[in-house]
Amino acid sequence: MRGLLTDRTASVVIRGHAFIQNLRRGHYELGTEADRKHLRLAAAFDELADVI
Is 46 among the domain residues? Predict the structure, then answer.
């Protein structure tokens, strides 16, 4: 697995994956206004982009 040469990079990938799964499952208030359930992730990233 190229790119996962250190524990730090593996940790970043694992945390990112967990964050995306939590967004999809609706554990955060992000993306809840999406018209359809399958668009929740895109709506959440739109909201995050406005904040950042």
Answer: yes
Q: What is the dihedral of CA 13, 15, 20, 23, to 10 degrees?
A: -170
Give the domain extent around 37: 23-52
Q: What is the pTM of this model?
A: 0.69
Q: How many domains does the chain have?
A: 1
Q: For the purposes of burial, counting CB atoms within 10 Å of the CB of 24, is it exposed (0-12), middle (13-18) or buried (19 or more)?
A: middle
* Sequential pLDDT tens for the chain (52 residues): 567 778 888 899 999 999 989 888 888 888 888 888 788 888 888 888 888 8
